[in-house]
Amino acid sequence: MRLLNKLSPRVAGMAAAVVTVVIWTSFIVIARATADPSRHGVLTPFDIALARLLGAGAVLLPVGWWLVRRDRAQKTGASSLFGFSPLSLRVTCTAGLFGGLIYAVLAYSGFVYAPAGHASVLLPGTLPLWTALLALLVLGTRITAARALGLFLILAGGAVVGGGSLVRAFGGGEVWKGDLLFLAAALSWSIYSVLARRYALEAVRATAAITVLAFFVYVPTYVGLLATGLVRGQFLLAPWRDVVFQMLFQGVGSVVISGISFTRMIQYYGPVRSTMITAVVPGLSALAAVVFLGEPMGWSLLIGLLLVTAGIVFGVRAVVPPVVVAKANSVQPARTG
């Protein structure tokens, strides 16, 4: 983070975008390879979510604790959740619920039913659509005619991919369940991105806070459900190498590093343009799924990818670059009127 602070706003924003794209692309392929029942993976979606929070918590809980103590020494800032979250309870709960807890559970569950190619279109691909609509409602961000056309292309691409799954559902297919979970996960992340902009959240504080909330809520809930037999868990029975890898990638990589880089993107580009910058993720992750997972590239998926990518690219060209936010240390709600 100190290195990013020394860079110019433009370079720091570009670096954050590259890191985010690489991790998001890898996330889709690795999550599908782990959660897909046909690949005989040991870990369930609930286990992967636990590994994600344990890995992220090992890094961010101490960071949050330290930030709170520093703020208290300087008699500034706010804190909550036993002094581990450096944000107020209201901001921690709202941002953490959507950016940390709900997103992970929905996304990992979706990979049980739908292939990575569908996730490529419906997870990062629909983020600009959800974010633009939420930014209009919450932040008052205007949707121009050009941007509306880009969003329509995204919607059409998602419909092409998800529509085929719904048709096959009449024959007993379950891919549509994964598609709906991916759409819901994208909506959850979009809500977080808009909240981060609304409250002017600093990257490290925001990522620490959402992890603290998810950790304190999910871990005891998982243990309780496992003890009562309401969910099936293999976390303690899985090979330790698999568990450590998931903790490092899903926790440290996808949460800590990607969370900070994505929040930095929001600071420099705003929520709508930040999600549109990820235009290459659908195509890259779908191609990676074909190469590494052996997934087919059908016509509906290819057309959906082309429509979504075109919509995102068109939206980026249609967005007027906003005023750069040099530093966002405040965690108070931004003025909306």
Describe the fold and architecture.
It is built from 13 helices and no strands. The protein has helices at 2-6, 9-35, 45-74, 89-113, 116-122, 127-138, 145-169, 175-198, 203-228, 240-269, 271-277, 280-293, 299-318. The protein is globular, with a radius of gyration of 19 Å. Helix content is 75%, strand content 0%. With 337 residues, the chain is an all-alpha fold.
Give the amount of beta strand, in percent: under 5%
**Secondary-structure element pattern, one letter each:** HHHHHHHHHHHHH
Count of separate structural domains: 1
Radius of gyration, taken over Cα atoms and rounded to an integer in Å: 19 Å
**Could you tell me how far the N terminus lies from the C terminus, measured between alpha carbons in angstroms?**
32 Å
Global morphology: globular
Uncertain spans: 320-337
Biggest sheet, open or closed, and with what strands and sense? none
Query: How helical, in percent, are the residues?
Result: over 70%
Backbone structural class? mainly alpha
User: Overall mean pLDDT score?
Assistant: 83
**E-strand count:** 0
Total of helices: 13
